[in-house]
Each structure stands twice: as structure tokens, then as C-alpha cells.
């Protein structure tokens, strides 16, 4: 702002210095006002919005299906689902809390439990097979639930649902998280497993 005012003042002084003797005398404030108007007509490039951060590491939740491999112990390996209480149960290893954990954190939790069973130096690998879906309802062509993909944004879910209807209130979405928290967001925002996106009808 200071540099703009300085440039404007210098422009006004330049106009005053180069005024001809036959021209009518203008007060300095008139010249400053004119210079400001000229400067205001110049195009100022818009500020680019800050880039949204990368999505956080995937956190497990009820309904996720995982593959657990306990090396050299096929009897403990297999495909399991995180139950409604957020726990996962392996053969001989019951009730391991999985909800809220990343895959590496769950691996560590299983290893700790196996050590309690005197199964030492055991290696464990956990992979995500199927995640909780993301659902969308309201003013889209094909409302429904779709498989979540890591890093997914709302615009992808809208595209999967066939796009907006002509009645849709576009780019102003209501999103309900799996935790029950509701918020408003734009179509380029990140979504997470278990989210429910609602596209409302525009008023007119």
C-alpha cells in the first residue's frame, strides 16, 4: 500500500512538472486523484488459493476388510473385517483394537499381542483389501455408495454418481463424517471413508 501511494504521488508530481504554462493550473490533490483512478484501472492478478495438504495416512474403521499375514503361521493369517466395535479378531488372537489405527500401527499391535503369547520374532503384514464406502445423495444423477480410493475428492464421487442434476446447488456440499460431524465444503475438498455427501436442491 505504501509503495502504491508513493508511485501515485510521483506520477502526480510528474504531471504537475510537465504541465504547460498555457494549461489551467490544477491543485495537487486533483492530480493525485486522477493518478489513483488510472492506477485503479490496472489489472491485479488474483491471489492463488493455498494448496490443500496431502491426505493423512489411512485410518482403519468398522467395515474395513484387511488381509493379515503372519509369516510362517498360516493358521493365524487370513482376511478379516473390522467389526462394529472397531476390533478385529484373528484365530487365537481376539479383540485387537483396530479402529483409528494405520496399517503399520495395527501390525505393531498384532506383534505385541503375539509376543504375549510367546510367539517371538514374528513378522506381520497387514494390507487393506476393501475400505468403507463413500455415499452421495440428493441432486445427482445416480445417488449411491462407491468404493473409497485414497486421496479421493468430492468431485470424483460426484462424477461416479453421474454428475449434478439441473436442480443441484453446485459446489456447496453438506458432508457428514463417520463420526457424525457435519460441515460444508466445496467439490474439490478431500473426502474420507464413511463420508456421506449431500447435494442440495437450489432455491431458484
Number of helices: 4
Nearest-integer average pLDDT: 80
> Share of helix among residues?
10-25%
Q: What is the CA–CA distance across the termini?
A: 41 Å
The rounded Rg comes to: 31 Å
> Helix/strand/pairing class, anyone?
alpha+beta
Instruction: Kindly report the spatial arrangement of strands forming the biggest sheet.
Output: 7-6-10-8-9
Give a short account of the largest sheet: 5 strands, mixed
Known CATH architecture of the largest domain: 2-Layer Sandwich
Short description:
With 204 residues, this protein is an alpha+beta fold. It is built from four helices and ten strands, in the order ααββββαβββαβββ. It folds into three domains: 2-40; 65-130, wza like domain (wza like fold), CATH 3.30.1950.10; 134-199, Outer membrane lipoprotein wza domain like (Outer membrane lipoprotein wza fold like, Roll), CATH 3.10.560.
Task: From the structure above, extract its key features.
204 residues; wza like fold; 3 domains; three-stranded antiparallel β-sheet; 4 helices; elongated
Amino acid at each position: 500500500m505504501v509503495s502504491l501511494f508513493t508511485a501515485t504521488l510521483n506520477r502526480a508530481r510528474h504531471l504537475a512538472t510537465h504541465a504547460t504554462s498555457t494549461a489551467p493550473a490544477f491543485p495537487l490533490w486533483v492530480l493525485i486523484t486522477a493518478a489513483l483512478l488510472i492506477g485503479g484501472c490496472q489489472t491485479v492478478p488474483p491471489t492463488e488459493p493455498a494448496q490443500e495438504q496431502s491426505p493423512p495416512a489411512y485410518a482403519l474403521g468398522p467395515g474395513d476388510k484387511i488381509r493379515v499375514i503372519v509369516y510362517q503361521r498360516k493358521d493365524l493369517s487370513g482376511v478379516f473385517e473390522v467389526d462394529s466395535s472397531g476390533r478385529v479378531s484373528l484365530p487365537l488372537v481376539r479383540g485387537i483394537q483396530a479402529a483409528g489405527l494405520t496399517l503399520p500401527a495395527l501390525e505393531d499391535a498384532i506383534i505385541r499381542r503375539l509376543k504375549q503369547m510367546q510367539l517371538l520374532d514374528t513378522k506381520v503384514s497387514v494390507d487393506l483389501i476393501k475400505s468403507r464406502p463413500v455415499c452421495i445423495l440428493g441432486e445427482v444423477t445416480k445417488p449411491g455408495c462407491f468404493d473409497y480410493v485414497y486421496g479421493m475428492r468430492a468431485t470424483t464421487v460426484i462424477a461416479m454418481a453421474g454428475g449434478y442434476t439441473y436442480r443441484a446447488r453446485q459446489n456447496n456440499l453438506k458432508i457428514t463424517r463417520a463420526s457424525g460431524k457435519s460441515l460444508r465444503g466445496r467439490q474439490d475438498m478431500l473426502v474420507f471413508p464413511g463420508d456421506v455427501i449431500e447435494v442440495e436442491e437450489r432455491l431458484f
